[in-house]
Amino acid sequence: MHRALITGGTAGIGAAFARAFARRGVALVLVARDDARLQQAAAELRTSHGVEVETLVADLADRDDQQKVADRLESTDAPAIDVLVNNAGFSVRASLLDPDLSEHDRGFEVMQRAVLKLGGAAGRAMSARGEGWIINIASVSAFITQNNYTAIKAWVTNYSESLSVQLEGTGVQSTAVTPGWVRTEFHQRAGIRGSSIPGFLWLDADDLAEQGLKDVAKGKAVSIPGGRWKLITALLRSLPRPLVHRLSSLLSSRRSKER
Protein backbone atom coordinates (compact mmCIF):
# COMPACT_ATOMS: atom_id res chain seq x y z
CA MET A 1 0.00 0.00 0.00
CA HIS A 2 1.32 3.42 -0.96
CA ARG A 3 1.48 6.30 1.51
CA ALA A 4 1.30 10.04 0.70
CA LEU A 5 2.49 12.90 2.88
CA ILE A 6 0.68 16.17 2.17
CA THR A 7 1.64 19.52 3.66
CA GLY A 8 -1.28 21.86 4.21
CA GLY A 9 -3.40 18.75 3.87
CA THR A 10 -6.51 19.90 5.75
CA ALA A 11 -7.80 22.64 3.44
CA GLY A 12 -8.08 23.71 -0.17
CA ILE A 13 -5.91 21.97 -2.75
CA GLY A 14 -4.12 19.90 -0.10
CA ALA A 15 -7.42 18.51 1.19
CA ALA A 16 -8.50 17.76 -2.39
CA PHE A 17 -5.32 15.75 -2.97
CA ALA A 18 -5.93 13.94 0.31
CA ARG A 19 -9.41 12.95 -0.85
CA ALA A 20 -8.10 11.91 -4.27
CA PHE A 21 -5.47 9.64 -2.72
CA ALA A 22 -7.94 8.27 -0.16
CA ARG A 23 -10.33 7.31 -2.97
CA ARG A 24 -7.46 5.24 -4.38
CA GLY A 25 -6.85 3.52 -1.05
CA VAL A 26 -3.57 5.35 -0.40
CA ALA A 27 -2.63 5.81 3.26
CA LEU A 28 -2.04 9.41 4.31
CA VAL A 29 0.20 11.55 6.46
CA LEU A 30 -1.39 14.98 6.85
CA VAL A 31 0.79 17.91 7.93
CA ALA A 32 -0.70 21.19 9.18
CA ARG A 33 -0.39 23.74 11.99
CA ASP A 34 -3.84 23.28 13.56
CA ASP A 35 -4.06 20.02 15.51
CA ALA A 36 -7.83 20.19 15.97
CA ARG A 37 -8.37 20.64 12.26
CA LEU A 38 -5.91 17.84 11.53
CA GLN A 39 -7.81 15.43 13.75
CA GLN A 40 -11.13 16.39 12.18
CA ALA A 41 -9.80 15.95 8.64
CA ALA A 42 -8.21 12.61 9.54
CA ALA A 43 -11.42 11.32 11.12
CA GLU A 44 -13.47 12.29 8.06
CA LEU A 45 -11.06 10.54 5.69
CA ARG A 46 -10.96 7.39 7.81
CA THR A 47 -14.75 7.28 7.98
CA SER A 48 -15.37 8.09 4.32
CA HIS A 49 -12.65 5.97 2.74
CA GLY A 50 -11.40 3.53 5.37
CA VAL A 51 -7.78 4.54 4.90
CA GLU A 52 -5.03 4.88 7.47
CA VAL A 53 -4.35 8.54 8.31
CA GLU A 54 -1.38 9.74 10.34
CA THR A 55 -1.20 13.37 11.48
CA LEU A 56 1.81 15.56 12.05
CA VAL A 57 1.48 19.01 13.60
CA ALA A 58 4.05 21.36 12.07
CA ASP A 59 4.38 25.03 11.19
CA LEU A 60 6.60 25.07 8.12
CA ALA A 61 7.64 28.64 8.88
CA ASP A 62 9.59 27.10 11.76
CA ARG A 63 12.84 25.37 10.79
CA ASP A 64 12.64 22.88 13.63
CA ASP A 65 9.22 21.84 12.32
CA GLN A 66 10.60 21.62 8.80
CA GLN A 67 13.20 19.23 10.16
CA LYS A 68 10.53 17.20 11.92
CA VAL A 69 8.67 16.64 8.64
CA ALA A 70 11.93 15.91 6.79
CA ASP A 71 12.80 13.32 9.45
CA ARG A 72 9.42 11.63 8.88
CA LEU A 73 10.11 11.47 5.15
CA GLU A 74 13.48 9.80 5.71
CA SER A 75 12.49 7.64 8.68
CA THR A 76 13.30 3.95 8.47
CA ASP A 77 11.31 3.20 11.62
CA ALA A 78 7.91 4.37 10.33
CA PRO A 79 6.06 3.23 7.19
CA ALA A 80 7.76 4.60 4.08
CA ILE A 81 6.41 7.65 2.29
CA ASP A 82 5.89 7.00 -1.43
CA VAL A 83 4.39 10.36 -2.40
CA LEU A 84 5.17 13.87 -1.16
CA VAL A 85 2.80 16.74 -1.95
CA ASN A 86 4.46 20.07 -1.19
CA ASN A 87 1.29 22.12 -0.94
CA ALA A 88 1.41 24.39 2.13
CA GLY A 89 1.29 28.05 1.21
CA PHE A 90 -0.39 31.41 1.47
CA SER A 91 -0.66 34.68 -0.42
CA VAL A 92 2.26 37.04 0.15
CA ARG A 93 0.67 40.47 -0.25
CA ALA A 94 3.43 42.68 1.13
CA SER A 95 5.01 45.09 -1.32
CA LEU A 96 8.48 44.35 -2.61
CA LEU A 97 9.33 47.86 -1.38
CA ASP A 98 8.10 47.25 2.16
CA PRO A 99 10.96 47.67 4.67
CA ASP A 100 9.30 45.06 6.90
CA LEU A 101 10.33 41.71 5.43
CA SER A 102 8.48 39.52 7.94
CA GLU A 103 5.79 38.41 5.49
CA HIS A 104 8.37 37.80 2.78
CA ASP A 105 10.51 35.82 5.23
CA ARG A 106 7.56 33.62 6.16
CA GLY A 107 6.72 33.08 2.49
CA PHE A 108 10.33 32.06 1.86
CA GLU A 109 10.32 29.58 4.74
CA VAL A 110 6.98 27.93 3.91
CA MET A 111 6.97 27.97 0.12
CA GLN A 112 10.68 27.83 -0.75
CA ARG A 113 12.95 26.55 2.01
CA ALA A 114 10.45 23.95 3.24
CA VAL A 115 9.79 22.82 -0.35
CA LEU A 116 13.54 22.53 -0.95
CA LYS A 117 14.18 20.69 2.33
CA LEU A 118 11.26 18.28 2.07
CA GLY A 119 11.83 17.65 -1.62
CA GLY A 120 15.45 16.77 -0.88
CA ALA A 121 14.53 14.48 2.00
CA ALA A 122 11.87 12.72 -0.07
CA GLY A 123 14.14 12.47 -3.09
CA ARG A 124 16.90 10.79 -1.07
CA ALA A 125 14.58 8.34 0.67
CA MET A 126 12.62 7.46 -2.46
CA SER A 127 15.74 7.13 -4.61
CA ALA A 128 17.13 4.59 -2.13
CA ARG A 129 13.97 2.51 -2.67
CA GLY A 130 13.91 3.08 -6.43
CA GLU A 131 10.40 4.54 -6.60
CA GLY A 132 8.46 7.63 -5.57
CA TRP A 133 6.59 10.73 -6.61
CA ILE A 134 7.10 14.35 -5.54
CA ILE A 135 4.32 16.81 -6.37
CA ASN A 136 5.02 20.50 -5.92
CA ILE A 137 2.02 22.82 -6.00
CA ALA A 138 2.98 25.90 -8.00
CA SER A 139 0.61 28.26 -9.85
CA VAL A 140 -0.14 29.73 -13.24
CA SER A 141 0.80 33.01 -11.56
CA ALA A 142 4.40 31.78 -11.95
CA PHE A 143 4.17 33.02 -15.53
CA ILE A 144 3.34 36.64 -14.63
CA THR A 145 5.23 39.26 -12.62
CA GLN A 146 2.93 40.77 -9.99
CA ASN A 147 4.59 40.38 -6.60
CA ASN A 148 6.67 38.10 -4.40
CA TYR A 149 4.00 35.38 -4.50
CA THR A 150 4.30 35.11 -8.28
CA ALA A 151 8.10 35.15 -7.91
CA ILE A 152 7.94 32.36 -5.32
CA LYS A 153 5.71 30.23 -7.53
CA ALA A 154 8.05 30.79 -10.49
CA TRP A 155 10.83 29.44 -8.27
CA VAL A 156 8.71 26.43 -7.26
CA THR A 157 8.03 25.58 -10.91
CA ASN A 158 11.69 25.88 -11.90
CA TYR A 159 12.83 24.01 -8.79
CA SER A 160 10.43 21.16 -9.47
CA GLU A 161 11.59 20.80 -13.06
CA SER A 162 15.23 20.97 -11.94
CA LEU A 163 14.54 18.28 -9.35
CA SER A 164 13.03 16.07 -12.04
CA VAL A 165 16.28 16.41 -14.01
CA GLN A 166 18.42 15.48 -11.01
CA LEU A 167 16.18 12.49 -10.24
CA GLU A 168 16.48 11.00 -13.73
CA GLY A 169 17.24 7.29 -13.58
CA THR A 170 16.29 6.92 -9.90
CA GLY A 171 12.70 5.81 -10.36
CA VAL A 172 11.51 8.99 -8.63
CA GLN A 173 9.41 11.57 -10.45
CA SER A 174 8.95 15.27 -9.69
CA THR A 175 5.91 17.14 -11.04
CA ALA A 176 4.95 20.78 -10.66
CA VAL A 177 1.18 21.24 -10.63
CA THR A 178 0.39 24.80 -11.76
CA PRO A 179 -3.30 25.59 -11.24
CA GLY A 180 -5.12 28.75 -12.18
CA TRP A 181 -7.82 30.17 -9.92
CA VAL A 182 -9.27 27.47 -7.68
CA ARG A 183 -12.40 27.64 -5.54
CA THR A 184 -10.92 27.23 -2.05
CA GLU A 185 -10.59 29.31 1.09
CA PHE A 186 -7.18 30.55 -0.14
CA HIS A 187 -8.58 33.77 -1.59
CA GLN A 188 -10.80 34.41 1.42
CA ARG A 189 -7.80 34.07 3.75
CA ALA A 190 -5.89 36.51 1.55
CA GLY A 191 -8.72 39.02 1.61
CA ILE A 192 -9.32 38.65 -2.14
CA ARG A 193 -12.98 38.54 -3.21
CA GLY A 194 -12.28 37.43 -6.78
CA SER A 195 -15.48 39.10 -7.99
CA SER A 196 -13.79 40.30 -11.18
CA ILE A 197 -12.74 36.78 -12.20
CA PRO A 198 -15.06 35.22 -14.83
CA GLY A 199 -16.81 32.11 -13.59
CA PHE A 200 -15.49 29.91 -16.39
CA LEU A 201 -11.90 30.49 -15.22
CA TRP A 202 -12.46 28.97 -11.79
CA LEU A 203 -11.33 25.39 -11.18
CA ASP A 204 -12.87 22.93 -8.75
CA ALA A 205 -10.24 21.70 -6.27
CA ASP A 206 -11.24 18.03 -6.59
CA ASP A 207 -11.16 18.20 -10.39
CA LEU A 208 -7.75 19.86 -10.19
CA ALA A 209 -6.38 17.09 -7.98
CA GLU A 210 -7.69 14.38 -10.30
CA GLN A 211 -6.21 16.07 -13.38
CA GLY A 212 -2.93 16.61 -11.56
CA LEU A 213 -2.69 12.94 -10.62
CA LYS A 214 -3.46 11.90 -14.20
CA ASP A 215 -0.53 14.03 -15.37
CA VAL A 216 1.68 12.54 -12.66
CA ALA A 217 0.71 9.06 -13.91
CA LYS A 218 1.76 10.14 -17.42
CA GLY A 219 5.18 11.19 -16.11
CA LYS A 220 4.75 14.89 -16.85
CA ALA A 221 7.22 17.32 -15.25
CA VAL A 222 4.66 20.14 -15.36
CA SER A 223 0.89 19.73 -15.01
CA ILE A 224 -1.48 22.55 -15.97
CA PRO A 225 -5.01 21.39 -15.05
CA GLY A 226 -7.81 22.63 -17.29
CA GLY A 227 -7.75 23.19 -21.04
CA ARG A 228 -8.45 26.91 -20.71
CA TRP A 229 -5.46 27.31 -18.37
CA LYS A 230 -3.23 25.34 -20.73
CA LEU A 231 -4.14 27.86 -23.43
CA ILE A 232 -3.61 30.87 -21.14
CA THR A 233 -0.24 29.53 -19.99
CA ALA A 234 0.90 28.88 -23.56
CA LEU A 235 -0.04 32.45 -24.42
CA LEU A 236 1.78 33.89 -21.40
CA ARG A 237 4.90 31.92 -22.26
CA SER A 238 4.90 33.22 -25.85
CA LEU A 239 4.15 36.89 -25.17
CA PRO A 240 6.99 39.45 -25.24
CA ARG A 241 8.06 40.24 -21.68
CA PRO A 242 6.94 43.90 -21.83
CA LEU A 243 3.39 42.70 -22.57
CA VAL A 244 3.55 40.26 -19.65
CA HIS A 245 4.68 43.13 -17.43
CA ARG A 246 1.78 45.30 -18.63
CA LEU A 247 -0.73 42.51 -18.06
CA SER A 248 0.70 41.90 -14.59
CA SER A 249 0.31 45.60 -13.77
CA LEU A 250 -3.32 45.57 -14.87
CA LEU A 251 -4.06 42.47 -12.81
CA SER A 252 -2.42 44.03 -9.77
CA SER A 253 -4.48 47.18 -10.17
CA ARG A 254 -7.69 45.21 -10.44
CA ARG A 255 -6.77 43.04 -7.49
CA SER A 256 -6.11 46.09 -5.29
CA LYS A 257 -9.63 47.36 -6.02
CA GLU A 258 -11.13 44.07 -4.77
CA ARG A 259 -9.62 44.32 -1.30
Automatic annotation (TrEMBL):
SUPFAM superfamilies noted in UniProt: NAD(P)-binding Rossmann-fold domains
Alphabetized InterPro entries for the sequence: NAD(P)-bd_dom_sf, SDR_fam
Keyword annotations of the record: Oxidoreductase
Family membership: Belongs to the short-chain dehydrogenases/reductases (SDR) family.
Protein name: SDR family NAD(P)-dependent oxidoreductase
Gene source species: Brachybacterium halotolerans
